[in-house]
Design goal:
The complex is a heterotrimer of chains A (423), B (184) and C (200). With 184 residues, chain B is an alpha/beta fold. Chain B has eight helices and four strands, in the order H-H-E-H-E-H-E-H-E-H-H-H. The relative contact order of chain B is 0.15. The model of chain B has no long low-confidence stretch (mean pLDDT 87). Classes of the chains: A mainly alpha (423), B alpha/beta (184), C alpha+beta (200).
Chain lengths: 423, 184, 200
């Protein structure tokens, strides 16, 4: 039987010409006669964190050029912001930095409150700080775990998932959701803290020291980890400033800036915490930076729990929060306020031509919100300033003339989260 | 009564296809196509608390050529859809697909210009999991449903049906050709 | 870990809040002075100046935009470009001479000050000189502005679409673009579950 016996229609008709890979000349295309090879690193790759694509031009194992490509998770958050009210948009903000959803919720709510000029009660501010710091611990510990996993150390990642599960328990008890919490509202919070939260957070914090010490023991003086990360993916301080970096990446490169200390919000000025800064700017110092920040966040959480003020969690005076159901059913003005906030066409009263840029210190860096209001209950423009975008564009600088394995190490240290990057 | 009593304690009786189906369903190799938040819940399902390895779906190899269960977890956008289709095409038969979460099943919270409103418009899906994101228990339940489905299928029939290879027609066409050759 | 005695906590917290409020007031003053310096440097070219919620905003004419950004960076110490974005004024109240507004958010790391520089961009010729020469970090945000609004940046090293696929037609964040798109999201080949092979 020769091969001409079987002439099935080829399956190639149904293989899609991939529109994700454009036909335009890429900036790393090698010329004729050059021996370099173009390799696609992503968007579906075991070592790629999320749907990111890096087009590498390789000379053997050395990277001679690279071009980052993104947009594989672009969902149109900014366009969606023009069609959802402020409180509805909080649900959407969860899905940006999905490692630490509470931080996004808090950032957006703080930005809207600053634009409206609302002052939230101290209890709401303290609870928000607690939730933000727990999400910071959760994001950093997973970042360290993933860094280890990319080098081949599988165990620290499993340990970090156990810690995250404990934090998920706390989030689930307060807001009802493990990952996507939607806990804050404009003017306060959705619910007050229920009873078991303080006990759970304290137990978690007591065990956290042991786990962090174990993970440090696994990785910090590990010969293989250090060989692969010390001096790799270096970003100098000038480059970090020029690229617009902020957060742990900037602090690992020597920029001493933290929005919690320099532009305090939500009462961060009251608590005692340090800002670790390392100067090497390599992958190892980013690992050390995140580890140190976990310890500082644990300190802040303990102080918040010790000093938790009592009282309301919603700014009742401002006409932006829903009154409690008892009042709605018994008092006339509460009924009217409830009506004005929930009916379409009414909603929160915003300034006629207000605009604000407010940034919070999210676990990845300076998460900025640029909001423009036009008097209606729906924003006119919502712009998210994602910290990952500025880190992502610095990649070609960091991996030029390095080996492919250094590319993996660098990518994992940046903690680029595609949901925030592409929005 | 019956064969088992007569055989005694050292033997079980079954049909070969059931035995193969039992082996296949308890060793599904998932291909996680995780894009967004559902990918984190997928990773949490694979970790120690909600251990997916108990159900056999432990070998997570990110290569489509080596897997039989595609788990689409997270939002799929315009730019990512051709990638998903390519990955689906690269997986060899028999293969099944789970659409995890609201965004993959129907577009979810995001009804915008880049979001595919439901991956099942372009890829055949076997099990849908609602939730945003679904709890790890939901994902384990979905894998269990796939296991039930796998346990009931006759694999050879499934492969033939899906790849369209009809052995009878192939043999007939070969016979026809041989007859033409002999005539000429 | 510093453990504060609970009784004094209230007093210490009140002191720290006061100190933070004072330093915030000083920062607002610094930002105002920096904005004054730019306004003075621009002279009569200054289009508008706003300070909603104590955040300084300067409107400059498009011809002087690049010079103003260079002056901010070199002379006034705004060494970090925090964001580059734009918005469409089509449905916004108030008088806006042109359709698009480019927004640059600058940060002075040394003095911890922020400034917003805006410029009106006409609809029929939406070109803005690139800020890539001043700050390397303007690379991707400008590509995104091009992708979402269609504003072009001559001088940009790699002006391609960033978030949407390369052949995409339309600029989504413009106000006349529908939220649900124009059908691109339904336009993919369907991979069937079963196939039929034919034999001859």
């Amino acid at each position: 039987m020769s091969s001409q016996d079987l002439k099935a229609t080829s399956l190639a008709d149904s293989i899609v010409p991939s529109r994700a890979f454009g036909e335009g000349a890429m900036s790393v295309e090698p010329g004729l006669g050059e021996k370099d090879m173009i390799i696609n690193f992503g968007p579906q790759h075991p070592a790629m964190h999320g749907t990111l694509r890096l087009i590498l031009r390789l000379n053997g194992e050395k990277v001679s050029g690279s071009e980052p490509d993104m947009g594989f998770l672009h969902t149109g958050f900014e366009k969606l912001g023009e069609y959802r009210t402020y409180n509805q948009y909080i649900v959407v903000t969860d899905r940006m930095n999905y490692f630490s959803a509470m931080a996004n919720n808090t950032g957006f709510a703080c930005a809207v409150e600053e634009m409206l000029g609302i002052e939230i009660p101290p209890r709401a501010a303290a609870i928000r700080v607690l939730m933000c710091e727990l999400s910071r611990i959760s994001d950093h510990i997973l970042g360290i775990g993933l860094q280890g996993m990319d080098m081949g150390a599988f165990t620290p990642m499993l340990w970090s998932f156990i810690e995250r599960e404990k934090i998920y328990d706390v989030f689930e008890l307060t807001s009802g959701g493990r990952l996507t919490t939607s806990y804050t509202r404009v003017g306060g919070l959705a619910f007050d803290l229920p009873d078991g939260v303080e006990y759970r957070v304290r137990t978690f914090l007591d065990r956290l020291d042991d786990t962090v010490r174990d993970m440090e023991g696994m990785l910090a003086r590990n010969r293989i980890f250090m060989d692969r990360t010390v001096g790799v993916g270096v970003l100098t301080r000038e480059d970090a400033v020029a690229y617009g970096l902020s957060g742990p990446l900037a602090r690992a490169s020597g920029i001493d800036r933290d929005l919690r200390r320099d532009r305090p919000y939500l009462g961060y000025e009251q608590y005692d915490f340090e800002i670790p800064v390392f100067t090497d700017g390599c992958v190892y110092s980013r690992y050390q930076q995140r580890l140190a920040e976990i310890r500082e966040s644990a300190k802040i959480c303990r102080q918040v729990l010790d000093s938790m003020p009592s009282g309301e969690v919603n700014a009742l005076g401002a006409k932006a929060t829903l009154p409690s159901k008892d009042d709605v059913y018994t008092k006339m003005e509460s009924l009217i306020q409830h009506f004005m906030l929930t009916m379409p066409g009414h909603g929160i009263k915003t300034p006629e031509s207000g605009e604000i840029y407010h940034a919070t210190e999210s676990p990845n860096g300076e998460l900025g919100w640029y909001l423009i209001s036009d008097g209606t209950a729906v924003p006119y423009r919502v712009r998210v300033r994602p910290p990952s975008l500025f880190a992502f564009q610095a990649i070609p600088n960091m991996i030029q003339d390095k080996l492919v394995s250094d590319v993996v190490a660098t990518m994992s240290s940046l903690n680029v989260i595609a949901g925030e990057l592409d929005r | 009564m019956g064969l088992e009593d007569w055989l005694g304690n050292d033997f079980i009786s079954t049909r070969i296809k059931d035995l193969l189906a039992w082996g296949r369903k308890n060793s599904l190799w998932p291909m996680p196509f995780g894009t967004a938040c559902c990918a984190i819940e997928l990773m949490a399902t694979m970790s120690s608390r909600y251990d997916m390895a108990r159900f056999g779906a432990e070998v997570v190899r990110f290569s489509p050529r080596q897997s039989d269960l595609l788990i689409v977890g997270g939002r799929v956008t315009l730019k990512m859809m051709p990638v998903l289709q390519r990955i689906w095409e690269q997986m060899p038969e028999p293969k099944w697909a789970i659409s995890m979460g609201a965004c993959a099943s129907c577009g979810g919270v995001f009804d915008t210009y880049t979001m595919i409103q439901g991956v099942d418009q372009f890829i055949p899906i076997d099990v849908y999991i609602p939730g945003c994101p679904p709890r790890p228990e939901n994902l384990i339940d979905a894998v269990r449903l796939i296991q039930d489905k796998v346990g009931k299928t006759e694999i050879q029939k499934l492969i033939d049906e899906r790849t369209g290879i009809d052995n009878l027609a192939r043999l007939e066409s070969m016979d026809r050709r041989r007859a033409e050759e002999v005539k000429s | 870990m510093t453990s504060l005695p609970l009784a004094d906590m209230g007093k210490i917290f009140a002191e720290r809040r006061e100190r933070a409020a004072e330093s915030a007031a000083r920062r607002v003053e610094r930002e105002r002075r920096l904005a004054d310096a730019i306004a003075a440097w621009l002279g009569k070219d200054l289009v508008k100046r706003e300070a909603f919620r104590d955040q300084q905003v300067i409107f400059v004419p498009l011809e002087r935009l690049h010079e103003t950004l260079a002056h901010c960076k070199n002379a006034l110490g705004f060494d970090q470009l925090t964001d580059v974005t734009a918005y469409d004024t089509m449905k916004l109240e108030g008088d806006h001479p042109e359709r698009f507004v480019m927004v640059y958010i600058l940060t002075n790391l040394g003095q911890e000050a922020r400034l917003r520089v805006k410029a009106y961009v006409p609809e029929d010729d939406p070109t803005v000189p690139t800020a890539h020469g001043l700050w390397v970090g303007a690379d991707f945000p400008e590509r995104e502005v091009y992708d979402m609004f269609g504003i072009e940046f001559p001088g940009h090293p790699n002006l391609k679409r960033l978030l949407l696929p390369e052949g995409y037609v339309g600029f989504p964040l413009r106000k006349d673009y529908p939220l649900r798109g124009r059908g691109e999201r339904d336009n993919f080949p369907v991979v069937p579950r079963t196939r039929k092979a034919t034999y001859e």
